[in-house]
Amino acid sequence: MKRTKMLKASSMVYALFVVTILAIISGSIVLSSYYYNLQLIDYTQRIKQQSYVQSGVNLLLEENSFKLPYKATRKLFEDEQSEIQLSKRWWGLMELITVESVWKNNSVGKVYLIGFKDNFNDRISLYLKDNNRSLSLSGKTIIQGNAYLPKSGVKRAYVDGKGFAGSKLIDGDILESKSELPKLNKKLYANVISNFESTNITDSVITFEELKSVEQFENGFSSKTIVVQLPDQTRLNQLNVTGNVILKSRGTLYIENTCAFKDVLIYAKKIVFKKEFEGKLQAFASDTILVEKDCKFGYPSVLGLVKDESNIRQYLAIDNGSSFVGTIAQLSFDEEVKSNELIRIEKESNVEGIIYSQGQLYLGGTVFGSVYTGTFILSTPSSIYENHLLDAEINSLKLNKAFVGIDIPVENKVSTKEIVCEFEW
Known about the structure:
Helix content is 17%, strand content 45%. The protein has helices at residues 9-62, 186-197, 208-212; strands spanning 70-75, 83-91, 94-103, 106-118, 124-128, 135-138, 142-144, 146-149, 154-156, 174-176, 204-207, 217-219, 226-229, 233-236, 240-243, 245-248, 252-255, 260-273, 278-291, 296-306, 314-318, 323-331, 341-345, 350-363, 366-379, 384-386, 388-390, 393-395, 415-423.
């Protein structure tokens, strides 16, 4: 009889071990392939959603017929994956747009601040309203760029012992101004004044005590706006506030340099930024805004005087050594220039952007950008002069080419809607 050859038990164990390892490897490969496909599908979907969001952003940039606030759901194509949520509203003097694409558990969104950018060749250094008085220049005054001046033009003057030191009065094209300043969009004024009078019903309101209880208060622009109602006389100290937040007071706000404000809106009767304050914000006052020495306002900031029927006077002043990047504007439906409406930019202070003054402007410092004013005022120890500049500089060519501000419509000047900055989603 022939004997049957038997395998050793150890060989069986080894074989089982090999089979198990192969099964594990095969399963891992299959599982990895499965998760890789899921990740690929998720990545592809996110790329699609990002393109849908960008299409929504382009739509909101190009379409000007939407009445603000605007909110809608749009399908870009027939498939339901292309559905996006669109939102457009005011944020201070600029527009805030939000676009979101949601599909299953994936959400992709963008939030942008929107303004207007002038064609570089169309930038205006100076627009001085024609009030039948010529512009007079003294000292080391420099005006570089296109200038809109009264029919009576520009001339040299001798003020405070100084004659005009330059070789050219206007280094740029001179055009004729009109008897009124170019008008701002009335919706800007209506939006800002409404925030003085009431609070949007969709906003969340908290107290000053609640704000102070948080070491770093931050609210994203994809969330509801939070409004903080402040007492009539308030000194703000050691506050760190960022984002979709509005600070409001019916009285005076004193803002110390220990505060850190970013992207917030501030509304009050009177606002005082104490020495060496630094921030990036939009602040509006119905009476007075005072910026003390050595303050710094980052882009895109706004300081606005908002005139209503109760205002007797308005005053905005930026003291020595301070710098500001953004827009300084006086907002009013009243077209009559009054002597009690004054914006004052002191010596050794610097503004990069736009100054829009319907009343009087004292310019002792430097402006890299555009100045629109009803009249200049110059006060010296010996006298007060109208439409005089002494040792001032206005230069639109030195303004950053990427600067985006508010729209000031002037004939033949081309402006387009552009993104100012992106906020975190």
